[in-house]
Structures are given as structure tokens and as C-alpha cells.
Prior knowledge:
The complex is a heterodimer. By secondary structure, chain A is an alpha+beta fold. In chain A, 54% of the residues lie in helices and 12% in strands. Chain A has one domain. In chain A, a hairpin with an 8-residue loop joins strand 3 and strand 4. The N and C termini of chain A lie far apart (43 Å). Chain B is mostly helical. Chain B folds into two domains: 1-18 and 270-414, no CATH class; 38-267, Glycosyltransferase (Alpha/alpha barrel), CATH 1.50.10. Chain B has helices at 3-19, 41-53, 57-69, 96-111, 115-119, 121-133, 152-155, 160-179, 185-201, 242-245, 254-267, 293-305, 309-322, 335-348, 353-364, 380-397, 400-413, and strands at residues 39-40, 80-81, 135-136, 141-142, 157-159, 203-204, 209-210, 213-215, 231-233, 331-334, 372-375.
Amino acid sequence: MDVRKIVSDAFLMAIIEGVRRDGPEKTLEWIERVADSLGEKEGPGLEGDPKGTFNCLYICPFANALQEFLIKYGETPSEFVDILNSADRADTFAASNIFCIFHHTIRAKRAGLAGRNVYHLASSANAEGKTAYNENAIEAVGLTKDAIDELMEKTVCVFKYE
Amino acid sequence: MNLREAKKLYDSSIEIIKKNQHKNGGFYASPPGTRYPFIYARDHSIVVLGALEAGLVDEARRGLEFILAAQKPTGEMPQRCDVEGTDTSYKELQIDGNGLVLYALGKYCQKVDYEVAEEFWNNVDLVVDYILKNKNDEINLIHTINSIHEYPAYEHGFEIFANSACCAGLIEAVKMGNALGKDVKRWDQEAELIRRNILTRLYSPRKRTFIKNIRIKERGSKPLGYDPYASTVGDPDAAEYAPAYFELLNDRDLRVINTVRRIDAALWDQELGGLNRYPEAWNRNNGGYGPWPHFTCQVARHFVNIGDDDRAEVYLGWVVDIASDYMLPEHLSTIERFDEWIDCYSAAGIMRDDKVVMIEGIKSHPKWQEGFAYVVTPLIWPHAEYIRAYKSYEDMFLGGESLQALKRQALVSR
Lengths: 162, 414
């Protein structure tokens, strides 16, 4: 029995149960609160490989855990899609999978503690490799989707600290 | 060994250290614009030790203040941080960096004063606590994922460099605590417990050598024998010199002498000279398998400490000879081995973009035309180790008449 895998699966199941019980908005807030607390414990910090004025990740640290879960679950749960489509947060995340919300909230908390702001611009950490964009953030940092696509050719996640 | 060149490399090393300290106090692992333009707790602490040895007291103090202030809320020292001291770690736990910060601070205090330790005592307390939280009570050793090679496949578990660094760090914390009138009795007991277990569990009487690692996946596995990784790594590794490097044992101790004898026999590069860090078959040979100046300097100090001037000169002389424009690389290799590494990584599909940048650096280095692959030049760490090794060598072998002869030689050459 791989307990770490079970705990990670349990977190994803809790998200599904949360959406069924409280709806996507409240569940999203719950995910953010959990991530915020973890970010606080971790302390000030910046993530990723600096690439010019941007930072990027070449692999998503959560992708394997999600993939294992989806193999077991059989398909992407509709509850995840409900959260990812949640309109209120569309300009905060470039969420290509459910973990992006969790991950970027930790990243943003740690950046805030370091006196920085961080924009999540794009990510493609899903089975299809489909890129999710945060168009408002891309515009705010003065970039175009084409420029982001170029950055995404060799990375799975792009963000910018200010 | 060419003594004039050796002294020039010593002087150059001091300048390189000074030049690569950011105004905030952090020592870059390699200069801005090169491969490692960050402050790594491990490299940084050793550079502090080198600075201290070279008499750069102010630089060492600023370095210590910087790294102590960069501590994470958990007590852990960051694997690496930026020049502002903001955590930019990207690898899992490397606990040796925590022990090394304490060790460097302790050495500074003994040489200068206890002001920094007093000012940052709360940080010292937190690092000690963090180290001890990673101790397994069944085996009384410290668990880590990465250590000096940042290679979990061989270092995940109770690894010798990490344990020696942490034990030495705790011993220094005890000395600082005693000097400052703190109650450090428990730390003292824990340090002794860890030391005893390094000397028994990480030593093989049958092989008469220290071993690299007790491979264990989970720190809290109980009983340890049932951990899925439970095994030992007994291959020769330059890191097995750590118990003496961190002064847990005297260099003249037979266990150390035999361990180094094995390292020397197995890891001295027959083609290039210099000391490799671990066996070629471990197959993580970025830039091509080859010798590392900083491990060569570490073991050079052993030969100095046991009075073996012949072997000390071979080791230190090699470092002097391979310096390029008085700068030391991370390691060097041959073009053939470099090509072999590229073929191997490319075929396996594990060549990364940042490695491509490194490859360009290797090929554009002047030594490439002479048939050598110089990987990351300069790396600051080997300059600090060189300072420490050269000073030991000078103190041991260049006193009295030898020193006078060197001075005469220098005068004549002018």
C-alpha cells in the first residue's frame, strides 16, 4: 500500500465530494485556503527556472499524481471541470488541471511573503497537452498568445514575478 | 608541484571568492551569467570556510549573516536562494547544507568572536531542531534525499556526507551554546549518538572502509529492515572521506587512512589524473565522466594531515596544473567521454535544454581545442577548497627553509 498515493488520491476525492456537497465555488475557496496555509508554512520563495523575464517549469510536479488518479477513476471527473470553469477565478489561474489552482495559490502566497506578485500565464499539464491561458494576465504583462506559445514549446507552465 | 604557480592560484582563488560575493553577502556558486548564478547553502558554507582560511573575516561574516537570514520558517536552510535571500529551491531535501551552515558558523566563532551566533541564536536553535527532526530513532542517523552529489538514487537514506556534516554542525552548535551560556546538553547527547552511529553503522570492518549510504526510503520506517529501499551502497565515493573532513575522526585514524586508500585506488583518474567523485558506472556524468578539483583538494588535505608530502603534492599539483587562467572548473573530462555522455543521454531521451547550454560552454572553452572538456569554469567551491588545502600544505611543508627557498625562487624570477 502506497500511503502517499492514497493521501494524494484522498485529496482529489475530497475535491469531488466537496463539489457534490457545497458546489464548485465553495470547494475552490476551500482548496485556496488549504494551499494558502501550506504556502505560509513553506515561507517566502520563488519557483521555477528563470527564463528571461519569466519563470517556467519543465515538468509539472503534480502531473504524475493526477495521472495515476485519473487512470484509477477512469475519466476526468465532471466536478473538476466545474471548478476549472468557475468564472470568478478565470483571471487568476491558467489552470490546465485541477492541481494548478492548488499549486498556483501556494506559489502566489510564497511570492507575496517575499514581497512579489506573480501572474500565472499558461500551463499545459494535462493528458492532452492542451494549453490553458490566463488571457488577462498575458495582457497585463504585455505579451501575446503567440509569444506564450513559443515559451510553451519546451515548458509546461509559465509565470511571471513582479 | 610548481610552487610559484601554486601560490598564484591561491591568490587568484582569494580574488575569485571576493569577486563572487554579492553585496548582500551571498556567494554565487558560479558567476552571474553562468550555470549556477544562485547561492547554494552547501557551496556557500564551504566558500565561507575558504574565506575564513584566507583571512577574509568580513566577507565570511557577511556570508553567514546572509545565509542565516535566509532560513525557512520550518528551520530548514534553503537548498538555494537568490541574492535577496529568497528561497528558490528546486530539489528535495538536502540536509547536509543545514549541518554545513552550523559548521561554518562554529568555525567563524572560534576564529573571530561569537557575535553572529548570539545575534542569530534563534536561527541556530531552529536549524538544530530541523536536523534532529530528520533523525531516525531506531538507527540514530539523519535521513536525507539528496546529499553532496544531489543524486537520490545513491544518496536517499542515511548518507555519510550528510550525516557527518549534520553531526559536525551539531557539535559546533554545542560549542557555540556553551560559549554563550545556553543549555545545550541535549544537543550534545544527540551529536554523540549520531557520531557513534556514523562510526559503526556507516563503517564496514570487513572492507575496512566507510560506506556511502544506508538506502532507506522513509525516515520513519520501523522496523527499517522492512523499508522498500532497505539496502546499502558500498561503492567507493569521495564523500566517504567525510568523517575526517568534518573532524569526527583524526586523519591518522586507520579507518580514515584505509578509506582514503580505497578512494585513491578506485577513483584517481588514470587518464586525466585528479579524483573522480564516484564510479563511472553510476552513469550520471554530465559533461563526461572525469575528475573534480574540489574533491581532489579535500583528499589532498588528508595527505597533508597525515604528513604524506608525496601524495599531497600529486593531488594539489594536479589542481594547480589543470587550472585554466588560474580558474578551476567544476570538473573536466575528455572529448571522447564527453561524446559518450551526449550519445548516451540523447539516445535515452534525457538530454535537457539547460544541458545544451552547458555543452556550448564546454565547447567554447579554450581547453576544448587541447582535447579537454572543462565543465562550468569557474566554479567557486573548488577555489575555497583549494585555499584550505594550499594553506594546510603551506603550514605543513613550506615552513622554515622550504618557505625561504620559495621566496628566493620568487625573487629570482622577478
